[in-house]
Amino acid sequence: xxxxxxxxxxxxxxxxxxxxxxxxxxxxxxxxxxxxxxxxxxxxxxxxxxxxxxxxxxxxxxxxxxxxxxxxxxxxxxxxxxxxxxxxxxxxxxxxxxxxxxxxxxxxxxxxxxxxxxxxxxxxxxxxxxxxxxxxxxxxxxxxxxxxxxxxxxxxxxxxxxxxxxxxxxxxxxxxxxxxxxxxxxxxxxxxxxxxxxxxxxxxxxxxxxxxxxxxxxxxxxxxxxxxxxxxxxxxxxxxxxxxxxxxxxxxxxxxxxxxxxxxxxxxxxxxxxxxxxxxxxxxxxxxxxxxxxxxxxxxxxxxxxxxxxxxxxxxxxxxxxxxxxxxxxxxxxxxxxxxxxxxxxxxxxxxxxxxxxxxxxxxxxxxxxxxxxxxxxxxxxxxxxxxxxxxxxxxxxxxxxxxx
Length: 405
Ligand code: CTP
Fold this sequence. Notes:
Layout: E1 9-14, H1 20-33, E2 36-41, H2 51-58, H3 67-71, H4 76-82, E3 85-91, H5 93-101, H6 107-114, E4 118-123, H7 127-131, H8 133-144, E5 148-149, E6 153-156, E7 162-166, H9 170-181, E8 190-195, E9 200-201, E10 207-208, H10 215-226, E11 230-235, E12 247-250, H11 254-265, E13 275-278, E14 285-287, E15 306-308, H12 312-323, E16 328-335, H13 339-352, E17 357-362, H14 363-366, E18 371-378, E19 383-390, H15 391-403
Parallel strand pairs: 1-2, 1-3, 3-4, 4-5, 8-11, 8-13, 11-12, 13-16, 16-17
Antiparallel strand pairs: 6-7, 9-10, 14-15, 17-18, 18-19
Helix pairs in contact: 1-2, 1-9, 4-6, 5-8, 10-15
This protein binds cytidine-5'-triphosphate.
């Protein structure tokens, strides 16, 4: 078996469900990421998809029957020992019942009994089967044994019913796989990420906003999730593709964002999060008054009276000081000038807003892009530059630094 640092072998268990075709897409994603993949089928799987599909995608023979042990010399123990992670996707009610009962009447079940690897399961079944007390109990038994789950989604099911039971999408299972392989460095930590722009209404259809895409915040939330954290995101109006299990609250205006942040950070009761990252581009101003209807162009004012929005991060800094909690506060700073000006602004915001770290970036390097270049300055005076890279990589670096605060 492999050591921790080189863990990259995924054994993909496929069972007899209409969602089996999605497992092929998942295998392709794993291969693209550089994982080694082998597939093992339950008896019913072949009625939905051919082993050859997985053989072609993974470049490895598929274990799909006991016969192969004799004819091709593929052993279930060998597969069980080879794996760093076993992912069952899709997992039917039948396989989960047999797995919970410790049965081993097909090669996949035998692998599951024999392996020492972590197990990740993506259930797929009819909504009533999913909510049946027998299935609920089986899932509970498996959870208590350390099996991890990617919750099925809600919606129309292949059987004609609507409800929970549809297998999670391959990209979602992929993020849960990264978490299962992750370093667990933020396990049991609660992380709140605030991201995206805010919109400040002028009338029923017009608003003031900015170019923030929320991508940096989404990358930070995914990275915190990968590291095992319990993650919550508060996002302004942007598209957010977050793994299931990450809680999302959508807000529109700065005041709504403030209310949502305050309700989750320093409430009267309950523990505040361990880490709060304000990656949002909060609008600094809002129109003094909002017109409920749409203004006709002839009625639009020549000048728009504005008023300041509250500074959410500064308020958090104050509240933390008063509460004396150990919550780590991280802010961002965006400037459009020279790097020297950015560093100066970062240092100023660090002390003015009473936070632990400010991540500075230039507007032209970051806004709406998939990449970024940042300068991190922390309260201990440490300065770290991260050269242009994908926001996922920048997020890794930021969270590595946050751990040192
Ligand atoms: N921020 C906030 N509430 C605001 C404005 C900003 O919480 N009303 C947070 C941002 O999320 C970011 C940090 O404060 O983490 C710095 O934001 P930035 O817009 O760069 O700076 P400002 O404080 O608005 O100052 P200025 O626009 O003058 O540079």
